[in-house]
Amino acid sequence: MNYFELIAWLGVGSSHPGGFPATKQNLEAMQISSEDFVLDAGCGSGLTACHVAKTIGCKIIGIDINPLMVEKARNRAEKEGLSHLVKFEAADVYQLPFDDNLFDLVIAESITVFLDKVKVYREFYRVLRPEGRVADLEMALIKELPPHLRKQMEICFGSGTNPLPFEEWLKALTEAGFEDVTIKNPQPMRNNGNMLLRELKKDWLLIKDLPQKIKHQPGLINRLQRNANFMKQNLGFFGFGLVSGQKPIPTVPPKKTFRDWIRKILFRK
Question: In sequence order, which residues have a C-beta less than 8 Å from that of residue 32 and are 6 or more positions away?
Answer without folding.
Answer: 38, 52, 56, 58, 105
